[in-house]
Every structure is written in structure tokens, then in C-alpha cells.
Amino acid sequence: MELKEAFLLALQSLWSNKLRSVLTLLGIVIGVSSVIAVVTLVNGANAFISTKFSSYGADVFTVSKMPAFITSAEDYVRFQKRRDILLPDYYYVLENCKLCTGMGAQQATIGKIVHDTQSVTDSQIRGYTWQMPLLQNLNIVEGRGFTEADEEHASHVAIIGTDIVDHLLPGLDPLGQELHVDGVPYTVIGVSEKQGSTFGASQDNWVGVPLTAFQKSYGTAKTVTIYVKASSAGPPLEAAADEVRVLMSSRRHDAPNGLQSFELDTNNTLVGFASTLTKSFGIVAGAIALISLIVGGIVIMNIMLVSVTERTREIGIRKALGARPNDILNQFLIESGTMALVGGVFGVIGGIGVAEVVTLLIGFPSSIALWSVIVGLIMATATGVFFGVYPARKAAQLDPIVALRADM
């Protein structure tokens, strides 16, 4: 009953002084909201990154001019100076790699798609070798994918994303329709499965054409990204990656034991690097949240000191009726912990709300982690108890005779 009574007294105190309670708990609410929002967004980003890269398959790796992630302007300039990876490089690896079970190459640019009087701008134009849709796990829900003949003859055929269908071909059977891609006509032979949006950007506003046809329009002197599939993940992938690394190095005359003129990335490399970035972001945001919690705890301590002064006579009466110092100490600790817990609850709600709003506004992925909710509530309660120790001890050490003489 003592625990329940102290808990109810704390809630009653919060309710009877609403404005003071709001101001008191603001720091706790902001701190916990920050923790929950950051963890929810980071968790969502990690899940998206892992899903995005793993969609290529754990047995697929890429060879490109520049790495997927660049952390400094100096690195960007250095990577830009590398020679482009060209289509003959791809064909060389394709012909000589013994441990590769699948291989494709891709180029991309931004362009305008037109059908009759309708048009879509800022669409991604992708040049694919015939195996690329399979290597990227693009599911063709209507029609067919590319064939070796399409690539060999630079056929003017196209696979499109669902945004192109919705904006240019509403109500029409997309198969067989003619689209003009930056002025060049292509016949639609396939429609990809809807992929949705990421970070506010649609993943379905694209047109894929054979890479040979793409290069006739945009030139051959542009770097390509090579996708390589091994027989399986683990040692087979590592063996295939080593073979491709040797082939590319010899093809490009890289110095032995020197710097490579290309980047070879596996899914684990990309996911690990991205996770490191998001963890660093989470640590910085967590430090900011910790500062908010400390500020909130100091405010709680201040309010509890005021409460001790206001309730001096009450404390004296309780001691006169037999309450021990530990009883008074526990009462005020429970009250301060309860106040912080209430702030933590509102902080959890606020943090989840902030993360969901960010997701709705810009499409940033979010995923609620139950452990973060529990940790947020524990942190809030612990902050309240920690900063409530001094006021509680002061209340417990009051002389009952002096306390009874205090004014009401």
C-alpha cells in the first residue's frame, strides 16, 4: 500500500499542478523522444539498407569505378581520376571468369520519357545487359525480360517501372506501346513489379533498355557497373571475387600490390559500412538526448526541493505518526521516479510520432524497436530517481519538531 500510495500521490501532484508538471517533464520528454525517434529511424534505415542490398543476393558483388559510399571530398576527387570501366572490360571478365555463374553490366542517366502528348521528366534511364534484371531480382510482372538477341542487336525494346505505366499509359495495355526515351523510340516488352519509394524518391520512375542500345544514344565512353554472381555466398563468393579482382587488375594494368583502379564491393561490405554510419549518427544523437535527460533531471530535482519545502509540515506529521526516515526517503524517490516515468511515456509517444511524421513527409524508413521503448522508459525513471535522491534525503533528515512548526 505504501508503494501504491506514493505512486498515487505523485500522479495527484502532477495533475494538480499541470503547467508546472509540463515544464518539469519537458526535458525528460525531449530526451526520451530523441532517443526513440533516432533509434526508430536508424533501425528503419538499417533494415532498408540490409533489404536493399540483400535483394541482389548474398552471392552477388559489384565492380565499379567508385565505391557506393564516399566519406570525404578528397576521396571523391581521387576516385573520379580513375579510368572508366568500359564495356570491353565487362566482356573480358565475362569470357575469362571461371567461377562466375552470372554476370551483367549497367549504366544509367536521367532523361525524359514521352508517349503521345504525355511526358515524364527526371526518369532514370537504365542500360542493362540481358542478365541484369535477374541479378537485381527485378520481377517482371507483365511481359518478358531481355534476351541475348536484344543485347546483341541493340534492339529498341524496354522494360518499365510502374510510375511510367501510371503516368503515361493509364488504362492501356503497356505491352507493345511505343515510348520515346530522350527522343529515341522503344517498344515496351515488360513491366517490373512495384518497388515503392525510399527517402521520398520513387523507385518506379525508370525505363530499362539494352545496354548496347543505351550506348548508341549516350555514348560508349562512360563507366559501367559490373554485377557478378557466384555459385553461393561464403568461400565461393570470395573465390569468385578474388578471380575477378585479378582479371580486372591485369586488364587495367594495375601495379602489383598497388592501389586498385576499381572498387569491388560485396553486400556485406556495403551493409557493414552503412550500419557503421547509422551507428555513428545514433551515438551523436544519443549524446544530445542524454544532455536533455540531464537537464530534465536537474529540473525534477529543483521541483522536488520546492515540493519538500511546501510539504514540510506534512513530513513532520508523518514522522510524528511513526514514519521512519527511510519511509520519507522512499516516498519522495517514488514520486520523482513516477514523474520521470510519466515524462518517459509521453516521450515514447512523441518519439514514435516524430519518426512516423518523418516517414510520411520524406519517405525515410522507420521501424519501431521494442527494446528502445523499454530502454527509454528505464532511462527516464532512472533519471528521476537519481536526481530525486538529494531532495528525498533532505526530506528524510528533517527534524519532526521543526517540521511541525512550519507554516502551512
Automatic annotation (TrEMBL):
**Main location per UniProt?**
membrane
Q: Which GO terms describe its molecular function?
A: transmembrane transporter activity
Q: Name one Pfam family in it.
A: MacB_PCD
Q: Which residue range or ranges hold the ABC3 transporter permease C-terminal domain? A: 287-400
Q: How does it sit in the membrane?
A: Multi-pass membrane protein
Source organism superkingdom: Bacteria
Q: What is this protein called?
A: Putative ABC transport system permease protein
Q: Which organism is it from?
A: Granulicella arctica
